[in-house]
Amino acid sequence: MDAMVETKGLGKTFVRKDSTPIHAVKGVSFSIHRGEIFSLLGPNGAGKTTTISMISGLIEPSEGDAYIGGYSIRQQPRQAKQLIGVVPQEIALYPELTARQNLWFFGRMYSLRGKELRMRMDEVIEFMDLEERQHDRIDTFSGGMKRRVNIGVGLLNRPQLVYMDEPTAGVDPQNRRRILDTVFRLRDEYQMTVLYTTHLMEEAEELSDRIGIIDYGEIIALGTQAELTERIGAEDRLVIEVKRPSDEETLLDALRAHPQASKVAYQVDDLKDGDRRGGNTVMPAEEAVLTVYCQNGRKLLAEVLNIIAQQVEISSIEVRQPDLEAVFLHLTGRALRD
Amino acid sequence: MDKIFVIAFNDLRIYLSQRGNLISLTAIPIVLAAVFGLSSAPRGGSIAVDFIDQDNTPASQALVDALLATNDAFVRGSEVENIESARTRVGEGTASAAIVIPQGFAQALQTFEALPILYFSREDSFGDPIQHSVNTVISQLNSSIIAARAGELVLNALDIEAESGALYARAQDLLAQELVVYDLRLSNSEGDLQPGEGFGQSVPGLGAMFVMFTVLGGMATLLRDRQNWTLQRVIVMPVSRAQVLGGKILSLFILGMIQYLILFGFGGLMGLEIGSRIVLLVFVMAAFALCITALTFAIASSIGSEGQAIYLANLLSVTLAALGGGWWPLEVVPPFMQTLGHISPVAWVMDGFNTLIYFDGGLMDILPYVSVLFGSSIVLFAIGIRRFRIVN
User: Fold this and answer.
1) Cα B344 from chain centre
2) Among candidates B202, B205, B204, B223, which has minimal Cα distance to B311?
């Protein structure tokens, strides 16, 4: 299949003030096909933003290269950038200017001018349903409307590749739905390739043709949702919330010893005092979450609960079918929001 | 190049779309320049000089007339009876100087005898121009006497009879035709400013300070662009880092120039004589605006927050203006402060403006000051461009 994006050994190493190198991205190689919606998932600090920043030409790679429509982002950055439309997570607009003035400025940055620029602006305004407010200042817009203008700027140059970084962050359900529909329209009506990042599993599940999971600067899985869930087998997850046990290891050993439990994950969310008041005191969590991976979860549930109940009080129980979140948890050992 | 202009235009449009910025660009500097200009305006009018003519002859009267003719601002003070009351009047400041022409002045001229002319002045007043005038007239007088005496000696040697008074009169006529009496640019009369007075000080001085307020305030704009991600958004488009930098530099430079032109325009309306070399004046403004733009970029990369940027911009503007003679002329501060003041670019731009406005200087006269400003700009830009970050 024809690749819209191809990375070859793309890597980035930052150097701290004390000269310690940090390998944010460790030579990743992957392709994004033309006309597909590709989601890149990864917990914070996994290297997701750094990878995309290199692909979009925001930061220079330390090693390797990325090709956009065949153009090297290092050797032919102008040609490569001409094919990309970027929709950042931030509302990257000038609040003092009107929607139309913002579009004009960014259009000029794509070397559009005159009649062609006016036509593209009108096109975007219509596509994003902004006709009535096009002459209003951005700082008078609601969050959802700002998001729409933000997306519109990324479409001005009729890009072949649109990179969208969490475009639904902080948006109400109605506007969120509209944005997701827009993503589908970009692929289906305009044959654009969409590179999408989100921390919402259900969004990734709904939108993506293929998904890449990145962790510790490496692509650890890539494929369709079906291919990814297949990797962990058709296992169910028993998610059991308990009072935090005094002897965690004994409980985990007992669960792991069960012949039908393929994997046991244990998660405690200690609350750092700094989260609330800027201090550094750690407040131990009173609750913990146990996740037991197994075939036929419902059948095994009684036995698992029996093991747990002998050692600790149970707060809630949930049996989950295999999904993207399970894949993510399975591969990274962390929830996406961690 | 086109994108540089578009970036600059966009930044200017954003700046000028805010009412607060318009007020700080126009109303506040104009009001302050007016207040400072009017309160430090020259007292104008005349310089009173008392004459005690104890000789009271046509010759002594001619001396008084010659002295008064050297400067339009000199006026004859009140009739003073004796030397003591003349001293008192000068001491009190009622008169700026007093000149005593002793009895026998005319006779002494005829006989070529030396006769002292007394001169009193206030040290803190206009003593200097008056004294210069007195010296000039006395020199002329002495030259006439010497010429007449030399002529008489020659005639005597040739055994020809001649009247010494006629010789003296002829010598004085000839000398008066040749001598330049006095450089009137040092005079102080109504409408003729001295450096540091009136709008001649407030317009360029406060102009420099407000250029710094406006341009250094650009640090906050650069920071906001990065925080809002608009800077990053531009760089992921087909725009080079050099074009982004060029646009940002150009917009701040133009803002600095607008600020200066507004104040000088106001100064012109208030009667400030800008001089005949407006192009050179704009050249000096440009050198300063560029220097402050470069300073903005050199500092901007070290600033962590918008609040910090605004605080630093205000602090630097006020301090550098005060230090460099933006508030008051450097001539009134001690010599070591005059030297120290030249670490501020304001001192160099004020030197340039003073040279053009007060001394009608040319390109070669302002070149040293402008060179310092351009040289500083190059160094500061080198630092600023190297440290300029698009991504945090």
Assistant:
1) 17
2) B223
Residue B19, Cα to own-chain centre: how many angstroms? 34
- State which residue of chain B sits closest to A157, comparing Cα positions: B237
Angle between helices A99-109 and A143-155 (to 10 degrees): 30
Quote the number of domains for chain A.
Answer: 2
- For A123-136, the pLDDT digits (tens) are 899 888 888 898 99
The partner residue sitting opposite B229, judged by closest CB among A92, A97, A105, is A92
* Interface size, chain A vs chain B, as Cβ–Cβ contacts under 8 Å: 69
Does residue A81 belong to the interface with chain B, where contact is any CB pair within 8 Å?
A: yes
Domains observed in chain B: 2-41+194-387 (no CATH), 47-186 (3.40.1710)
> Measured between CB atoms, which of B228, B230, B236 is closest to A56?
B236
CB pair distance less than 8 Å for A78 and B238: yes
Q: Which of A203, A229, A255 is the last residue of a domain?
A: A229
pLDDT in the model for residue B52: 84
pLDDT tens track for B348-360: 999 898 888 777 7
Beta-strand ranges (E) seen in chain A are 3-15, 21-33, 37-41, 63-68, 71-72, 84-87, 161-165, 193-197, 210-215, 218-223, 236-243, 261-267, 271-272, 282-283, 287-294, 314-320
> Dmax over Cα atoms in chain A, in whole Å?
76
State whether A78 and B229 contact (CB < 8 Å): no
Assess whether A205 and A107 both reside in one domain. Answer: yes
Q: Which chain B residues in 3-42 lie under 8 Å from chain A, judged by CB atoms?
A: 3, 6, 10, 13-14, 17-18
Residue A218 in domain: yes
CB contacts, 8 Å: B237 with chain A: 81, 86, 106, 109-110, 157
Give the pLDDT band of residue B267 (cuts 50, 70, 90): confident
Q: Do both A194 and A122 map to the same domain?
A: yes
Domain with A282 in it: 235-321
Counting every residue, how long is chain B?
Answer: 392
**The pLDDT value given to residue B185:** 35
Greater model confidence, B360 or B196: B360
Domain boundary among A208, A229, A250: A229
Q: What tens digit of pLDDT does each residue of B36-79 get?
A: 777 765 555 567 788 888 888 888 888 888 777 766 667 777 77
For residue A129, is it within any domain? Answer: yes
Residue A102 lies in a domain: yes
User: Residues A152, A73: one domain?
Assistant: yes
A88 interfaces chain B, CB cutoff of 8 Å:
yes
Clarify whether residues A200 and A151 are in a common domain: yes
User: Is A199 in the same domain as A146?
Assistant: yes
Q: Note the pLDDT tens digit of each residue in A197-225.
A: 887 888 888 899 999 988 888 998 899 88
The answer as to whether A329 is a domain residue is no
Tens digits of residue pLDDT in B322-336: 998 888 888 777 888
Residue B236 is nearest to which of A58, A90, A96, comparing CB atoms?
A58
A96 touches chain B (CB under 8 A): yes
Nearest Cα to A131, choosing from A143, A140, A122? A122
User: Does one domain contain both A123 and A204?
Assistant: yes
- Distance, in Å, from the CA atom of B57 to the CA atom of B67, rounded to the nearest integer, reads 16
Residues A179 and A290 in one domain: no
Q: Are A17 and A89 found together in one domain?
A: yes
CA distance A88 to chain B (A): 8
CA–CA min distance A99, chain B (Å): 13
Residue in A53, A101, A109 closest to B237 by CB: A109
Give me the residue label for tokens 């001619």. B62
